[in-house]
Amino acid sequence: MKKSDISWCLLYVLLAVASAVLVISGGFAWFNRTLPYLAGAVQFAVYATAGELLSTRMLEGRWEVNRATLFVAASWGFSGLLVTLAFQVFSTGAQQAMVRGFLPFCGNTIALAFFTSALNNLFFGPIHSGLIRVCVNYADLRFTQGGNPTVRQAVDSVDWGELIDFTLFKTIPFFWIPVNTVTFLLPEDYRIASAAMLSMVFGILMTVLRLKERRDQESAAAL
Questions:
Q1: Which of 2, 62, 67, 181 is most deeply packed, by most CB within 10 A?
Q2: What domain range includes position 142?
């Protein structure tokens, strides 16, 4: 363990303690109820970025905080706005679909949570994953590799085949739909907080993809 790891471990412990206090005291509920968009942006920026920093340390052996990190944090914050809106749209939409007979088991709380999670992840999840992937790659190309990429170059840098396979056929059905079903069983004021904490996992998954893409590009350039 490096000396810097001790300081970072303390920060993660502080984040965990602060999260626990906010859950117990109702701080998360108040924040998400009173200022939902701001709450979504702040929570996603903090937790998802924490996940990316941790995964970079685990995979590359160093803590990497630079301008790319700030850009990615801002991107996660913007995505938090979209997730906040999407949760409202899909939870209301799933409920109305069940009431009108377009989905079965009307009145069943677990079925409503499952359908909300499934619809949210199948329709919004791939768009969200793609947007974050492009933003992260743009930050990597511009701030880490020192280039001046266009949006088109950032889009082209994404391994879309791998992202779609990884997102649609692996993480969405086997991870995100189940865990977000639990999220939608929580009181509404805690759902975004739960999703933001889970975004730490999302940040780790996105970092794994980014590093794999970078290594594949380096291997291709060496041939």
A1: 181
A2: 3-222
